[in-house]
Amino acid sequence: MQIPFIDLKTQYENMKEEMDQAIHEVLDSSQFILGPAVTQCETSLEEYVGVKHAWAVASGTDALMMALMALEVGPGDEVIVPGFSFFATAEAVSLVGATPVFVDIDPVTYNINTDLLESAFTEKTKAIIPVGLYGQPSDMDAINTLAQKHGVAVVEDAAQSFGSSYKGKKSGGLGTIGCTSFFPAKPLGCYGDGGAVFTDDDQLAEVLRQIRMHGEVERYSHGRLGINGRMDSIQCAVINVKLPKFNQEVEQRQVVAKRYLQGLADVSELVLPVVSDDCVSAWAQFTVRVSNRPQVQERLKEKGVPTAVHYPSPMYKQPVYKDLVQGLELPECEKASQQVMSLPMHPFLQEETQDYIISALKEAVR
After folding, report:
1. What is the pLDDT averaged over residues 30-58?
2. For the residues 124-143, what does the mean pLDDT come to?
């Protein structure tokens, strides 16, 4: 049996007629950049997240960079980030000339450990980037309280947590600026690269709009430096088709996650994911811990069960940061990088297939 890790084909087949029509409407209009599909996408995203402003951008990485640029983060500034996330979280900080300050994670949620945040602040701290790893937001009340105390901004990295909620409020709208990714494998994905930035701040929204278009204040008048950060009309058309169905898919992810949690509850060799009481996870990944990961992955591969490691190295262990963080040790980040393993997770995972995965995993760990 060959099992897809993420089943984008089935998703497309379920909305093929509507999707094909939406894409062909863009082709027929020939408005490929900032056309009506983009306007519709942004309006729908504002309504979904519950914020005043949303801009569709070229990627989740661009979203983070644009947020930092809008907040005037640059050389000499520090930005607090978790030590364990996809590399773009720290990369965006470095690309604007600032310095990422890495903090260890909570071993249960894999998100930044808010008990360790206070000691990470210095007079150079300009922002915090909490990440909603694997699908659930960070402890945003604690983070926002500390940020307010120190007078810094919160840039929420909702690349994996888009579709989740924290105390009833949607991820993406939990900080000063929210950022997400529409990479195809994300809970809400387009058919290429894409992303979005969110804010309730009118002034920041205008700055973000300008940054997205080379800093244009108006046509051919550039009041600031920016980037070519626009999400194209075809990718926005894809989101326009998927977004109305997204809540249903997130609900189905809950069903899939529950089946995993119930089916693997008696497997002492595994540490199963835990969702905080304040959160509803988008279940971007179903990630377990296992001590003998390479052997388990190989045994599962032999049975046709794909797995992934998110991520095999903490961000601060990447070669590019070797001179920045000499001697830094964040024990929970390093344990996680050695033990985490993600299982197939998508809304279309059939119960029979999932039973097979659970059975195969039980055999593989013993």
Report:
1. 98
2. 99
* pLDDT of amino acid 138: 98
pLDDT at 2 over 90: no
In three-state form (DSSP H/G/I as H, E/B as E, the rest C), the secondary structure along the chain is CCCCCCCHHHHHHHCHHHHHHHHHHHHHHCCCCCCHHHHHHHHHHHHHHCCCEEEEECCHHHHHHHHHHHCCCCCCCEEEEECCCCCHHHHHHHHCCCEEEEECECCCCCCECHHHCHHHCCCCEEEECCECHHHCCCCHHHHHHHHHHHCCEEEEECCCCCCCEECCEECCCCCCEEEEECCCCCCCCCCCCCEEEEECCHHHHHHHHHHHECCEEECCEECCCCCECECCHHHHHHHHHHHHHHHHHHHHHHHHHHHHHHHCCCCCCEECCCCCCCEECCCCCEEEEECCHHHHHHHHHHCCCCCECCCCCCHHHCHHHCCCCCCCCCHHHHHHHHHEEEECCCCCCCHHHHHHHHHHHHHHCC
Q: What percent of the chain has pLDDT over 90?
A: 98
Confidence of residue 265 (pLDDT cuts 50, 70, 90): very high
